[in-house]
Amino acid sequence: MNRMLLKLLNKILNTAIVLVLLVTALYSVYCIWDNNSIYDAPAELQKELKSQRPDERSPSFDELLKVNPDVAAWVTLEGTQIDDPIVQGEDNQEYLNKNVYGEYALAGSLFLDSRCDRTFQGSYQLVYGHHMEKHRMFGDLDLYLDPQFFESHTTGTLMVPGRTYSLQILASMRTEESDHFIFDPEHCLSEPESFRQEILSKSEYIHEGLWQEWEQEPEKYSVLALSTCSSEKEEERIVVFAVYKSGE
Predict the structure, then answer these.
(1) CA 70, 73, 75, 81 torsion: positive or negative?
(2) Exposed end of the chain (fewer CB within 10 Å): N or C?
(3) 3-state class of 87 per DSSP?
């Protein structure tokens, strides 16, 4: 009886192991499919809008908003493959796992902090994106932690409905996800001098001339912070700061 029971238990255990391996394999296949889908989504959207663009640099926001009314902007950074739409959800969880088409995707979308001004007229705009392989999403932000790349790639564009802003790269840093001066836009706005000192003290690289211009006349500039996870430490974030003149 004990021998029969032991055989039965071994059979159940082997079946359970097979099921676990099967589920793991299926999940891995899904993850690969999901990642490829998020890699392709911006490219598909660009292709879809190409015929609607007045030129190759400016997506038609009428068409973008037909795709998803949550699309707020489009960001492009020189020398990277960052050339993607930015959405804004009702909170900062909505687009963690949803693509620009509003469909479920583990890799999510680039999204503007829900506390920021979706018109990008505010003095501080914070955008999040996952750190993805194949240079997708914000996978290229860590390039700005290389001094040679930082010095030689200093521009980008931010496109919003009816406007295109020229971005100038200001600084790059590593910081903790708990850094409220960076990740709490309302706190940044309430203590602008402390916010500037936080960037100055923590940044690994800063363009000094641009920093001085911003420090002397901060009211002329808006700051765009682009944040992603670090591959080195779980609670660490890479943040690249750019400035643009939103009032012009």
Answers:
(1) positive
(2) N
(3) strand
Residue 235 CB-density burial (10 A; 0-12 exposed, 13-18 middle, 19+ buried) = exposed
State the Cα–Cα distance between residues 202 and 98, nearest whole angstrom: 32
Amino acid at 75: V
Secondary structure element (H or E) that encloses residue 130, with its range: none
- Average pLDDT for consecutive 10-residue bins of the chain (248 residues)? 60 62 51 50 55 51 86 95 93 92 85 96 95 80 96 96 94 94 90 91 96 92 94 87 88
| Alpha-carbon gap, residue 87 to 95, rounded angstroms | 8
Spell out the residues 6+ positions from residue 77 whose beta carbon is closer than 8 angstroms to its own.
83, 140, 153, 156, 167, 169
Residue 91: which H helix or E strand, with range?
none
Beta bridge partners of 172: 205, 240
Q: Count the Cβ atoms, other than its own, within 10 Å of residue 234.
A: 8
Closest CA to 237 of 81, 158, 130, 156: 130
